[in-house]
Amino acid sequence: MRLITHNMLSCNIKGVTNGFPLKIEAEKVIEKEVDFNPDFLRHMFAKIEWKALAEAARSMGYAELPDDSPDAAVIESADETFLRKLHHALLELHLEEGALVCPETGRKFPVNKGIPNMLLHEDEV
Amino acid sequence: MKATLAPSSLISLPRHKVSSLRSPSLLIQSQRPSSALMTTMKTASRGSVAVTAAATSSVEALREGIAEFYNETSGLWEEIWGDHMHHGFYDPDSSVQLSDSGHREAQIRMIEESLRFAGVTEEEKKIKRVVDVGCGIGGSSRYIASKFGAECVGITLSPVQAKRANDLAAAQSLSHKVSFQVADALEQPFEDGMFDLVWSMESGEHMPDKAKFVKELVRVAAPGGRIIIVTWCHRNLSQGEEALQPWEQNLLDRICKTFYLPAWCSTSDYVNLLQSLSLQDIKCADWSENVAPFWPAVIRTALTWKGLVSLLRSGMKSIKGALTMPLMIEGYKKGD
């Protein structure tokens, strides 16, 4: 699971109002190189929940992202240093084994072989 | 005489008229109003919406059955049919003697026709985020992500499918755009209003609670976003009819048991649900004629040497699935 996906997942247990973002318990993180595509990143930037991304990246061992969302100017600039950091955090870090934890209930959703299992149990529905 | 079954149909409803629809099944597209006001949901308590599961444990059992079915059969399907696990779209008068690649093209055409029907064109840069509900091994997701340059996330009950879908995405250098997880379409793990396009290609058949299924589709759709559903339905019931004829129900039951399909509903049921959730621009159509060549083609591929050997290797669920296929054709034929 990459952080671009994590940025979209939330806990939907019945009654939970604060199910996003899920905390990450990382047991196995791997890095897979992906082609750098600045246009794609600029395109996506507006939709990213920044704080969630920065915190998630930290849990995966990558602390290069600022806590607060950068200005659009930084994203649009020709200098791609920052974009490369975003690229790395968003697309190249993979959680292979671990869990996603609901911030409100503490319920753990397992991640195995890179795939999160978000199925709820009967009593959570 | 009305057709009993009609997967992925397309009926164009004239705007302000309630027509008595001839055949079921549908492709529906609907748009969530752009205004931010989320109206309270009216109860959709009309007509014969699909039976909700009697007990929660049977819902769990269905969920597990679906997961296992696809865990076991996806590999075989992919080997013979490729990565799209839905009907092809054919011209109504086309010969069924198409080549294998002809059928795969038809499956791609199904996606294109669906997008076209919904008015979603390549120029629509508005499509940035897509959810593929019941994604199989990700054929639609990868196709749509490539086409629109959009981010696509797919959900399936089958861990085997999710893994395969991710692997295929990686192989096609699409990992940055598409990802797949195990999740329940009835409890989508996403915040409200997340997706510009909500895509359900022949997965609605598996949902035991159609009302809940539709509610979730609507919930995760962004204001101004689009929902496209291609699904199998039974024919609309006539006035005064409370249920399908016994022989029709019998035929359906046999199909359902093998493919882990809970009770079916009709096109009208879906339309009513969508209307009750205040969606706009609801369109539907009946594509029965356009998909009818599909099952005979599938059966023919199963009957080839490769098909038979693969079936025998892949286990009972696949074999039962293959034996049930003639029933699908029977369902189509019992019409005009």
TrEMBL record, chain A:
PANTHER family: MULTIFUNCTIONAL METHYLTRANSFERASE SUBUNIT TRM112-LIKE PROTEIN (PTHR12773:SF0), UPF0315 PROTEIN-RELATED (PTHR12773). The keyword Transferase applies. GO terms for molecular function: methyltransferase activity; protein heterodimerization activity. It holds the Pfam family Trm112p. Belongs to the TRM112 family. It comes from Raphanus sativus. GO terms for biological process: rRNA (guanine-N7)-methylation; tRNA methylation. It comes from the Eukaryota. Signal peptide: none annotated. This is Multifunctional methyltransferase subunit TRM112 homolog A.
Automatic annotation (TrEMBL), chain B:
Residues 220-229 are annotated as: SAM motif III. Residues 131-229 form the Methyltransferase type domain. The keyword Repeat does not apply. Keywords: Methyltransferase, S-adenosyl-L-methionine, Transferase. InterPro entries: Methyltransf_11, PiNMT-like, SAM-dependent_MTases_sf. Pfam families: Methyltransf_11. It comes from the Eukaryota. One of its GO terms (molecular function) is S-adenosylmethionine-dependent methyltransferase activity. Residues 193-201 are annotated as: SAM motif II. CDD domains: AdoMet_MTases. GO terms for biological process: methylation. PROSITE patterns: SAM_GTMT. Residues 130-139 are annotated as: SAM motif I. Belongs to the class I-like SAM-binding methyltransferase superfamily. gTMT family. This is Tocopherol O-methyltransferase, chloroplastic isoform X3. It comes from Raphanus sativus. The gene is LOC108816273.
